[in-house]
Every structure is written in structure tokens, then in C-alpha cells.
Amino acid sequence: MKLWGGRFTKETNQLAHNFNASLPFDRKFYSQDIDGSIAHVTMLAKQGILTDAEKEQIIAGLTSIKEDITNGTLEFNETSEDIHSFVEENLIDRVGDVGKKLHTGRSRNDQVALDMRLYTRDEVLAVDELLKELLTALLTIMKEHTETYMPGFTHLQKAQPVTLAHHVGAYFEMFKRDRSRLSDIYKRMNYCPLGSGALAGTTYPLDRNYTASLLGFDGPTLNSMDGVSDRDYLIEFLSALSTIMMHLSRFSEEVIIWNSNEYRFVELDDAYSTGSSIMPQKKNPDIAELVRGKTGRVYGALFSLLTTMKGLPLAYNKDMQEDKELTFDAIDTAKGCIVLFTGMIASTTFRKDVMEESAKKGFTNATDAADYLVNHGVPFRDAHGIVGQLVLYCIDKNIALDDMTLEEFQAVSPVFQSDIYEAISLKTCVEKRLTIGAPGKAVMDQVIAIYDAYLAE
Predict the structure, then answer these.
(1) Closest-CA residue to 128 (of 269, 266, 244, 302)
(2) Which one of 90, 237, 244, 436 has the minimum C-beta count within 10 Å?
(3) Cα–Cα dist 252/271, whole Å
(4) Taking a C-beta distance cutoff of 8 angstroms, is the pair 104, 162 a contact?
(5) What CA–CA distance (Å, rounded) separates 226 from 432?
(6) d(CA 147, CA 367)
(7) Which helix (H) or strand (E) is 17 found in, with range?
(8) Which of 282, 196, 296, 292 is nearest to 242 (CA)?
(9) What would the pLDDT profile of 209-243 be if each residue is shown by its tens digit?
(10) How far, in Å, CA of 36 to CA of 182, rounded?
């Protein structure tokens, strides 16, 4: 049954029907479609547009349809154009002509705008909850590794010593910002488009505020043309998902590097690794690599929708049907990546000994050696040159600064004394960095307490 068939004198070409139909993918929000219809008829009865008896009949029919779809006894057919048509057709079959009153004061334009908004709102909350689980896993790692020393990098070159807690904390901040973005999106999108009609509202005395409250919105949208044609919230959500995926991809890249034979910073759990079909020694970081790869897929959804929307005049255009498949795919992709990455990182073993040795051999304490000289009256520029000579000497001998004898230090500069060893120990280098946000244990403990309180909110 077509909801618009009265104007037409012959059937739609089958290929055109298939091209136009959205049921194969918009069936995904059947629950939201039915919830919106129940709120709509509840409002219609309140306004005297439907009788209470009609309302009860329609709601009973809608509820039974929702239950039957959920438990699998009602299957989707190929003849309905979209989820709205499918639900209404089945409603009329079950409750008779009273079911034909469901669509009073409503258009498919504001109906689909509502359904997509309800679905997206649910998914924003779902992604937020997954991010919270990831943050909980990261915080557990941080608590265990405030004294696990490792090299910090710039330009992928070893730079200064940090701790694993400090390094992981950088990602905690990223994903915390991601949650903040989701919260902002939820607030901006939480207005109800139902009642906008096709584009110009309706002559029926609808109570849009009541409908909005029934569905948990903060209020109705204030312009009916914008109400049916707004997809900003989807673009924002896809942008937020893209940023989340970018953060996951950056972390995945580091896990991949850390897992390499050259670094050996981590041992990935067997449950999150695969082997080679030909090389028995291999343990591949496939989950991290796939997260990195699937980031482009989510980016593609964002750019696709931006491109679709860029030339559309007001109000609704069929082009907007293209918002669904790519958004559904991007949401499912991002959620799957968050879940798998959380499991992977939570089960990863961090090689403390290898990390610490790497920090020593990478001369990450060279800056602290220069600071030692400065604190003993040597101008910084001279101190920089002296330590550069020390590094060249160590490279030639294949040793770390910590391995030099006092005589070797003093051969380059007599300023060095026996306290140089304590001054350039990784523990000292890290512990004396005590400004908030630095890797020193005292301030890291403060930050961890702040994160604990944040996750408990």
C-alpha cells in the first residue's frame, strides 16, 4: 500500500520502487517509529482530534506490532516503501479503519525527522557509555603504572622520560573531550520536529509541547521548514565519531609500534591478536590495525553527508534519505571499534623493563644533565654543547649516560660530581616534574583522583 497513491494512475516501475524504497535500512528504527506514533496519537486524543477509544485501539495495535517485530513473528516485506508504510499497513490490518487515523496532522517528512532524531539520540548515549568504559580501562592502567618509566617522543624520536600513566593520561584527556562533545550534541539536538508537517505545520490544533515532553525532548523545534530539513545534528555526530576514531587510530598506531620487534613495549593478549598463515613466529596486532583502517570509513560517512546536504534548497528533499545507511554504518563501526579497543588495551601486558631500558638508551635524560650543569653555574648554551658531546661519546661506546663513569663525565666537564647519577636517574627526571599535568607521581596521583571523581559523576 502506498501512502500517496491517490494522485497516481499506474504502478511505480519496480526498479524505481526499489531505488526509492528505504525499508531495507530504515527498518532499523522501527522501535523509534512506533514510539513516536504512540506519542502522536496520545497527543491527538488529548486535543480531542481522536477519541480515547480510538487512541487505545491504535496504541494496542502499535504495541503488538512492536512486540511481534522484536520477537521475530512479524517479518518485514519487500512491498512496503519504508518503515512508516510498513507499520501503518500492519496497523490497519490489525485494528481496521481506525488505523487510518494514525497519520492525522502528520507527514512522513516530520515523522522520519523524528525517527532519525530519536535513534541518533539513543546512539549518542550508547557511544558515551562505551567511552566511559574505555576511560575506566585507561584509568586502571594509569593507577598501575605511575612509576613505569618510558621514553616520551617528539617526531617519533626519544625526547624526555615520562611514565606510562602519563602517556595513557593523554588519551584519557582526548576521550574525555569526546564525551563532552557528545553531551553538547545531545543538548543541541534534543528538540522535537514532530508537528512540523510536510514543511508548513498543520491546521490541526496539535500540542507540540506535549508531544515533545512525552518523547523526552526539551521542547519542539521552532521552525517547521528547518524541522523537516535539519541534518546538522547528524553531521555533528558523525564529526564527533570521526574525532573519536581519530583518537582510537592514534592510540592504535602506537600500540602497533610498541608491539613491533624493535620496540617490544607490549605483549598483546592472544584473544586480540592473530598469526600468520605462513610465518609461525608472527603475532599480529590486527585489532589495532583494523581500528586504524576503519577510521577512514567513518570519515567517509561524514564527508558523504556534508556533500549530500551542501546544495539542498528548503525544505525536505529525497536526497536526505541518504543520511541513514552511512550514519548507521558509521555508528556501528565506531561502537565496534571502541568495544574491541577497550578489550585489547585492558588485556595488554606492558613490558616495564623494556620501556625503562629504552628510555635510558634513548638519552631521554640528556635535558636533565644539561639542567644539572646550569644549576652549577654553567650557561645553558654551553651546557647544551657539553651534553651533546656526552651523547656522541655514549653513542660511540653504545652505552647510556647512566653507564658513564665519573671520570668519563669529568673528562668532558670538571663540573660533574658524583651527584650527577641521582640527577639523571629516570626516577629523578620524572619525579621533579611536579607542575599539574606533568608526569611526576605526586601530581599524577592528583590527576588520577580528579579522573576517579569524573567517572563517578
Answers:
(1) 244
(2) 436
(3) 16
(4) no
(5) 56
(6) 20
(7) helix 14-20
(8) 296
(9) 999 999 999 999 999 999 999 999 999 999 999 99
(10) 23
Burial of 74 (0-12, 13-18, 19+ CB in 10 A): middle
| Model pLDDT for residues 77-127, shown as the tens digit of each residue | 988 999 999 999 999 999 999 999 999 999 999 999 999 999 999 999 999
Read off the C-alpha cell for 248: 582510537
Options 180, 183, 260, 276, the catalytic residue: 276
What predicted TM-score, i.e. pTM, was given to this entire model?
A: 0.92
For cell 606510562, name the residue.
164
Residue 6 has what pLDDT?
57
Q: Which of 15, 93, 96 lies closest to 54 in space, CA to CA?
A: 96
**H/E segment holding residue 151:** strand 149-154
CA 243 – CA 237 distance, rounded (Å): 10
DSSP string, 79-135: S-SSHHHHHHHHHHHHHGGGGGGTTTT--HHHHHHHHHHHHHHHHHHHHHHHHHHHH
* Antiparallel, parallel or unpaired: β 149-154 and 266-267: unpaired
Exactly one of 155, 213, 260, 418 is catalytic; name it: 155
Provide the grid cell at 162.
615520562
Q: How far apart, in Å, are the Cα atoms of 152 and each of 170, 292, 438?
A: 12, 22, 12
Label residue 71 exposed, middle or buried (CB < 10 Å: 0-12, 13-18, 19+): exposed
Q: Which three cell numbers stand for residue 40?
A: 502522536
CA-wise closest residue to 247 among 342, 319, 387: 342
276 catalytic per annotation: yes
Cα–Cα separations (whole angstroms), residue 55 to 63, 66, 193, 216: 12, 16, 21, 20
